């Protein structure tokens, strides 16, 4: 139909920024001549553009491209500081690309391939500015988890706020608990995941639980603190008097581990913040003569390649990458379409995957 042809042509012109710098569409008579169409046909096309939020009409002045129309590039930014650190992110990106393609969008990944923390911060800040300058339609942002970089997270968010670029956070908020930022958030329920880990360990007869707060790439962060909170909560509910011991040394510190296990109240189970730390801890425990799971159970988090390649394989929490991607994408589309809506926090369930690293040493089934 003619009005749909006009609508498609004008939408393409808006995307390609044909009407800059004034961002004003030609008048209705000009559009009638341009498309050799009746005025009512042109008005039908303009009504569709207005319904999509791409233009707005000003009485006596004509039709102008809105902020959303200026940003109609068909591109969604994916901003992740440490993309290469976990296979979880590759799965998330793949699912996002699949969701986006169905609706005619493209995903543009921006990350840093540098190992040094200060350079990563600079790279991601620069990438955020570029996404804003290129007027992507929205951004899915996984903040820096290191608490030292909280200022950088706020600076990045301010870049997008200044350009009115919609943002959805994934995995972690930029504000420390119990505060919340003015952003939509899609993440796993880390407190519930912690309780699930603790319940499993207690059910296998363990009573002296510990949480390793230090990792390989990162250390203490809000996600890990919430997992510890969940573990401690389950221990308290079960009436276990020993509580949860917090370990603040890295998983490859053999001397610290030896000292720990010389203690009369050494742990019989250690939960780690991610699979890489847990896999390294298993090797360290072997080096000091401790058996996993006979002497001590070990659990991870993410269910990536480290969980499956570890010997023994790791009990872990599986991050639902596909569900996080789909939910974040839908949430961002809603934020783009309805910017005035209240911000939402969406916490997703994450299943426990039980493997040999936490098997009950008394059940005779450790093969």
For the record, what CATH class of the largest domain applies?
A: Alpha Beta
The protein's oligomeric status is single chain
Q: What's the story with the biggest beta sheet?
A: 6 strands, parallel
Q: How many domains is the backbone divided into? A: 3
Helix-strand pattern: HHHEEHEHEHEHEEHEHEHEHEHEHEE
Helical percentage: 40-55%
Distance between the termini: 68 Å
Percentage of β-strand residues = 5-15%
Task: Please explain how this structure is put together.
The chain has 367 residues and is of the alpha/beta class. The protein folds into three domains: 2-70, Winged helix-like DNA-binding domain superfamily/Winged helix DNA-binding domain (Arc Repressor Mutant, subunit A, Orthogonal Bundle), CATH 1.10.10; 75-188 and 321-348, Response regulator (Rossmann fold); 190-319 and 352-358, Response regulator (Rossmann fold, 3-Layer(aba) Sandwich), CATH 3.40.50. 43% of the residues lie in helices and 15% in strands. The chain has helices spanning 2-15, 28-35, 39-51, 67-70, 87-102, 117-133, 150-162, 190-203, 222-237, 254-262, 275-287, 305-309, 321-337; strands spanning 55-58, 62-65, 75-79, 106-110, 138-141, 167-170, 184-188, 209-212, 244-247, 269-272, 297-299, 316-317, 345-348, 352-353. It has a six-stranded parallel β-sheet with strand order 4-3-5-6-7-13, sandwiched between helices. Strands 9-8-10-11 form a four-stranded parallel β-sheet. A two-stranded antiparallel ribbon has the order 1-2. Strand 5 (138-141), helix 7 (150-162) and strand 6 (167-170) form a beta-alpha-beta unit. The longest helix has 17 residues, at 117-133. The termini are far apart. The model has no long low-confidence stretch (mean pLDDT 90).
């Amino acid at each position: 139909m003619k009005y749909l042809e006009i609508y498609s042509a004008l939408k393409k012109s808006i995307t390609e920024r044909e009407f800059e710098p004034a961002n004003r569409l030609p008048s209705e008579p000009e559009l009638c001549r341009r498309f050799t169409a009746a005025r009512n046909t042109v008005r039908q096309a303009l009504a569709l553009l207005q319904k999509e939020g791409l233009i707005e009409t000003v009485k006596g002045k004509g039709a102008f491209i809105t902020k959303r129309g200026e940003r109609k590039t068909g591109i969604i930014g994916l901003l992740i500081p440490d993309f290469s650190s976990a296979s979880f992110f590759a799965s998330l990106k793949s699912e996002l690309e699949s969701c986006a393609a169905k609706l005619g969008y493209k995903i543009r990944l921006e990350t840093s391939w540098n190992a040094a923390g200060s350079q990563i911060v600079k790279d991601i800040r620069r990438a955020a500015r570029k996404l804003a300058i290129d007027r992507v339609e929205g951004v899915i942002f996984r903040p820096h988890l290191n608490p030292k970089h909280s200022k950088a997270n706020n600076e990045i968010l301010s870049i997008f706020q200044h350009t009115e670029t919609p943002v959805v956070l994934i995995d972690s908020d930029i504000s420390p608990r119990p505060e919340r930022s003015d952003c939509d958030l899609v993440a796993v329920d880390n407190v519930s995941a912690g309780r699930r880990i603790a319940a499993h360990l207690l059910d296998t007869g363990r009573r002296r639980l510990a949480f390793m707060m230090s990792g390989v790439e990162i250390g203490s962060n809000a996600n890990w603190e919430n997992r510890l909170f969940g573990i401690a909560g389950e221990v308290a509910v079960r009436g276990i008097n020993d509580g949860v011991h917090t370990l603040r040394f890295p998983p490859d510190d053999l001397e610290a581990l030896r000292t720990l296990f010389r203690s009369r109240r050494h742990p019989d189970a250690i939960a780690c913040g991610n699979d890489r730390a847990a896999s390294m801890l298993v090797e360290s425990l072997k080096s000091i003569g401790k058996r996993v799971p006979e002497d001590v159970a070990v659990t991870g988090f993410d269910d990536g390649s480290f969980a499956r390649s570890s010997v023994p394989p790791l009990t872990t929490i599986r991050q639902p990458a596909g569900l996080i991607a789909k939910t974040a994408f839908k949430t961002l589309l809603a934020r783009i379409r309805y910017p005035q809506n209240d911000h939402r926090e969406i916490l997703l369930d994450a299943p426990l995957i039980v493997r040999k690293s936490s098997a009950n040493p008394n059940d005779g089934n450790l093969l």
